[in-house]
Input
Amino acid sequence: MSAGSTNAPMASAGSTNAPMASAGGTNAPMASAAASPLLRAVGLTKTFRVAGRLFGGDRSVHAVTDVNLEFGAGRTIGIVGESGCGKSTLGRLLLRLLLPTAGRVEFDGTDLATLSPRDLRAARRHMQIVFQDPYASLNPRMKIGRIVGEGLEVHGVASGKAAREQVLELMARVGLTADAYDRYPHEFSGGQRQRVGIARALALSPRFIVADEPVSALDVSIGAQILNLLLELQDERGLAYAFISHDLRVVEHVSHQVAVMYLGRIVELAPAREIYTGARHPYTQALLSAVPTVDGKDRRQRVVLGGDVPSPLDPPSGCAFHPRCPIAVARCRVEAPQLVSDGGHRTACHLVGDGNPSAGGDVPPPVRHDPAPA
Amino acid sequence: MSKVSTVSDVSDVRGTNGKRLLDVRGLATAFDTSEGIVRAVDGVDFHVGEGETVALVGESGCGKSVTALSILRLVQAPAGRIVAGRIELAGVNLLELPEAEMRKVRGAKIAMIFQEPMTSLNPVLTVGYQIAEAVRLHRGLSKREAWKEAVRVLDLVEIPDAAERAAGYPHQLSGGMRQRVMIAMALSCDPRLLIADEPTTALDVTIQAQILELLDSLRARLGMALLLITHDLGVVAERAERVLVMYAGRVIEEGPVDRVFAEPHHPYTRGLLRSVPRLGRERAPLATIPGVVPKLNALPAGCRFRDRCDAAVAECASVDPALEPLGEGRRVACIVATRRGGLES
Output
C-alpha cells in the first residue's frame, strides 16, 4: 500500500489539509472535528512489563490507557497529574519516542506507525520536545551553537555559514546573546539553559512541541520569563503544544484545553476555563483545592485527599480514584467509568451527569479568582 | 533582658514569657569559592516568636537555606563559616556555645527537616531504629522505651499502623510517608523550633497539602514555632503568619503575610508576587522581573536589586538600603518605599 510511504503531507509545512485522515479510523471518539487536527492520539495505550516475583511471572504496568487527544495548530493542551500518572509517558508516546502497546498517533493525518524509518525521521523534524531539567538535557561537552544547530546538519537543512546564521537568529529570538554561541552549558543559569533547550527544539521549525515540565526546575521569576517566551513563540509560529506539568497554576497560563490524568487515564478533559471554574471530576476538584494560592487567607474548605497515589503496578479495582474519592459509591469499586462527553467537557466519573450534575455533591467546586496584588 | 548563657537556661525555653524564641541579629555567613570569598548571608536580622510560623522566602541562591543551616551551626567548615552576628535562642547566643553544648541544642531544642526525605534517611536501617536512636541519644531512654517512643511519634504524624511501619525500611514508604517519618524524627525530642527547609517541594500537590496540614496541626498542638523555608509564595500565604523575603543574602522585606502580599512595599516582592502563576487568570502572559539574580561576588553598588528594579532612582546606585520599619510590624529595605511610606502601585 502506497499510503504513508510518501512524506508529502509532512513536508508541506503549514498546510493543515490532511488527505489521509481517518484512513483506518475504526473508532471516531472525537466529535469536535472542525478542521482536522495536526496531531491526533487515538486509543493510545502503553503497558510496561516489569519483572515480577520469583516464580511469579512478569507483571505489567498500565502506564497510559486509552488516551484520545487532538492537538490543533496554535493550540495548547495542558496535561496535568501527579507523579506516576503517566503524563511523561504520554508525552513520549505522542512523539513516538516510545512505541504504543495499542492505539496510534497521527500527524497531519498519517499514522506514524505506517512510516518507513526514513519517513519517520523526516516527520520528526516537525515534532520536538523541551525537557524539564535544563542541566541534564544539554550535553556538557558541546558548545551552545552546536547544541542548537546539530539538528540542522543532521537533517541536511543547513550547514556551515548558513547554519550558523540560522542558529544565531534562533538564539536571538529566545533571548540569548551571540557570544553564547561559543560557550558551554555550565556557563549558563537554569533559565538561560532552558532558552537553549527551546532554541534547539525550534531549530527545525517544528509544528508540534511537547514541553515536559519546562519551568518546574526554575525560580518563579525566571519561570515566568520562559512561559511568556513559549506563549510568544506559539503565537508567532502557530505551534501546537502538549504542555505537561504537575502545576495547575502554570498549566492555566498556557493552555486552551486541559487533560487531567490519574493512574494512566484521562479523568477529565475540557476547555481550560471550564476546568478552572467548573471542574466536575472529584479528583480535579481536589487537585485544584490543594493548590496553595497567594491570596492565602481564604484557607477554603480544603479538600485534603487522604492516602497516596496508588501504584500503577497494583491499581485499585473499578475507578482507580475510588479509594481516595470523597464521594465514591459502591459502583465505583467495581466498574471503571468511561470518559463521557457533555458539551465538549469530558469526565470519567459515574457520579457526573448521572442525575448528579455537580458531581461534587456537598463538595463546593473550588472556584477562585485571585485578586491582583496591589 | 540580661544575657544568660548556660545550657540549663536553654532547656527552660518554655519559661521565657517574652515572645521571642529565636532572635537573629546581623548574621553573616561567608564561603570560600574559586572566585573569592562571598557572603551568602550578609547581615540578616529577624526573630521567631514562641509558637509562631515564620516563612523565609526567596529564589535560589538568596541565602534562605544558609540562614537555616547557620542557625543550627551546620554550615560546612572550612569553606563556609559564620563571620558575624548573634543567634539567640531564648536569650542564649548559640554562636558562643561549645560544640558539645550545641549538639544538645540540635534536635532537642531546634530540629530541622529537609526537602528530600530519602537522602536524609539511612536506607539499611528500619525507620523505627533511626528514630529510637535519636531518642536514646538525646533523652537517654532505654532501647525498649526508645522504640515505644518511636512508635508513638510515628502515630503522632498519622502514619497508619505505626507499630508495623516502625519495623519497615525507608524504601518501603512513599515520598509523603518518608516526609512524615522525618517529621516524626524531628519531633521525637520535643523541639521548641522546627525548621522546615522546602518540606513539600519534592511532593505531589495532594500529598503536599497533607504534609502542610500535618505540620500546622502539630505546631498548634505541641506549641512549637515553625520556620518555614520555601520558594512557593502560595505555601507562604496559606501557612505563615509573618514572612521574610530574601534577596541576594539580605532580608529585603518583612511583615505579616496578609499585609505584605496585599500591599508589597519592596519592588522585588511586588515583582515576585506578580510573576507567580495564579489560578483564575486563563491563558495570558505573566508579569516578569527582568534580568537575573546578581552573582554574590559581583553585586552592584548601592541597592542589590536596582539593576532589575522598575522603581529605582539615581540614589539607589549609591545607597545600600537598610531594613527600615514602616509601621504595622513591617520593615522594608528600599529607600523609595521608605520615603513614600510605601510603594505606589
User: Anything to note?
Assistant: Chain B touches chain A through 53 residues (CB under 8 Å). Residues 1-18 of chain B have pLDDT under 50 and may be disordered.
